[in-house]
Amino acid sequence: MSQNHLLDASGVAKSFGAVRALTDASLRVSEGEVVALMGANGAGKSTFVKIITGALTPDRGQVLIRGRQAHVGSPAEARRSGLIPVYQEPSLIPDLDVTDNLRLTDTPVAAFRQWVSELGIETLNLDSKISELPLATLRILDLARALASEPDVLLLDEMTAALPTDLVERVLTVVRQQADRGMGVIYVSHRFSEISELCDRAWVLRDGRTVGDLTIGPGVEEQAVELMLGQKLELGQRQVQRSGTQVGEAPRVRVKDIAIAPKVSNITFDLFPGEVLGVVALEGQGQDELFDCLAGFLPPSSGSIEVNGAPAHFRHPAEAIAAGLTFVPGDRAEALLAQRSVHENIALPFSARLRNWGYLKLRHERDRVAHAIDRLQIDTRAQGEVRRLSGGNQQKVTIGRWLATGVETLLLFDPTRGIDVRTKRQIYPLVRELAENGASVLFYTSELEEVPLACDRALVIFNGRVVDVIDAADADEQTLLRAAYGLTAQESVA
């Protein structure tokens, strides 16, 4: 092995009972190199990452750090060995403030502050409680904490998912600069654009084994998808969309002049039956508050909501559900009963109709759930507890329950965040299928390329207002990004 290899993992295998998560996984990262770890959900990425970072012990294989056998029995030992991970969900203690979280990892405060500023957050109160800070800020703090500890190898596991575009660019720039100074980086992401911009190589997993080691360059996306899926597939095609503004058609949901302090100042739109209406916004522009308001978690300070032509005043999520508005949050853990089975989670809405239960109803439920599992190809090997499923399969369960039980208006908040291309390709047509069956879908996405694949139109929100409504046929990434920054065509030319 070259002396420049900072980490060399080879022949790694791991089983959980009868389920083989890894059979022969390998990866190497050298000084100054950024390598992507790619694979469809269920390919074994999460297990491989946990082994490399000391959270799990492999059944077979070895992990070398700087050419020496590593006996990393815990994440703390991994940190002491110079390998520091930053996960999709920040590893910060919610009930503690920022300073106390830094003390837990002996992170130098001055260096941490410097990195926070370098990563794009100009002001930060170290006395702030973690639970009171937005998710995007927490991800930046987690990365700043890792960089302040001067790792030899930095592992980024989907940490840019749901970050606004400006912060993503800062993260990629800073990580590339650190790699150029000799740090090794393992980058786990489903975003080909980021991998192409940042990485030197890509290691691809499929069914628990490494099936490819690719040099980043033209055509690598197609090669990676072929390796991940075992067959040649297109990344995605524009879906057949309808117009949500057909003559004489009444909107299912009408939002007029909604204000929600302090982020939302004035939002107006109509959502029609059979329409997928996209929502595009950078972090903190009011999209979170808009969805929370429609789902019954937040009352508007002014403005009105109508559902099927009748005024709606939601004081509780149950009232929104009763009016036909169903919310699927971006954090799938909030939507699932983690220790219950796949069947129980998909069938959950049926339980709200207990007085209608009987033999025929239960048989109907089983048939509908089985159809949803088959339609979405949900992995049921570990269906005893849904928490044992991969993130992509968990997300399919959250959406599949509405395929099984039916829905009138679905509020989808970033449903494909942090999941692989194969699962995304299944979710887009599912969303379209729900719309074709008469559902109305409000679809916020942090990935601009999803808009023409799933939506009919897109609302662009900036500074708490709708600044543009763009037809899906015209919704290329450049147009959406300009609008998301509050730039009109005239301003962008100037």
Could you please describe the fold and organization of this structure?
There is one protein chain. With 494 residues, the chain is α/β, with parallel strands linked by helices. The protein has 2 domains: 5-229, Rossmann fold (3-Layer(aba) Sandwich), CATH 3.40.50.300; 253-493, P-loop containing nucleotide triphosphate hydrolases (Rossmann fold). 33% of the residues lie in helices and 24% in strands. The strands form 4 sheets. It has a 6-stranded mixed sheet with strand order 6-7-8-3-9-10. Strands 16-17-18-13-19-20 form a 6-stranded mixed sheet, with helices on both faces.
What's a concise summary of this model?
By secondary structure, the chain is α/β, with parallel strands linked by helices. It has helices spanning 45-52, 75-80, 98-104, 109-118, 135-148, 165-180, 192-198, 220-229, 287-294, 317-322, 342-346, 359-376, 391-405, 421-436, 451-454, 477-484, 489-493; strands at 5-16, 19-30, 34-38, 60-65, 68-69, 83-86, 153-157, 184-188, 201-206, 209-215, 253-260, 264-271, 276-280, 302-307, 310-312, 325-328, 409-413, 440-444, 457-462, 465-471. A hairpin with a 2-residue loop joins strand 14 and strand 15.
